[in-house]
Design a protein that fits this description.
Blueprint: E1 5-11, E2 18-24, H1 25-30, E3 32-36, E4 43-48, H2 60-64, E5 75-78, E6 81-84
Antiparallel strand pairs: 1-2, 3-4, 3-6, 5-6
């Protein structure tokens, strides 16, 4: 069965490029997700529930609110999208 996904669209702050990425619901809610800007290749942490980059789990809302901004094996789900899952 196909896993539920989210479509994430954002503007890269360093270069201003707007891009869309498909991420799994499981990784977004329980794992760690990074997306790479296809223009400048900057990596953006979208969620970090596995504490790869921080000492505390961080949701997307935590990251947006400015809380503190680590490594486990990544899973590439599509070009420019990397997810980490606690397996």
């Amino acid at each position: 069965p196909k896993k539920p996904t989210y479509e994430l669209t954002f503007t890269c702050m360093p270069c201003g490029h707007r891009s869309s990425h498909t991420i799994t619901e499981q990784a977004f809610l329980f794992g760690t997700v990074l997306v790479r800007c296809p223009s400048c290749y900057e990596r953006h942490v979208i969620s970090d529930h596995l504490k790869i980059f921080n000492e505390e789990p961080m949701s997307f809302e935590d990251i947006l609110s400015g809380k503190n901004r680590g490594r486990k094996k990544p899973m590439h789900t599509q070009k420019n999208t990397i997810e980490y899952l606690d397996q």
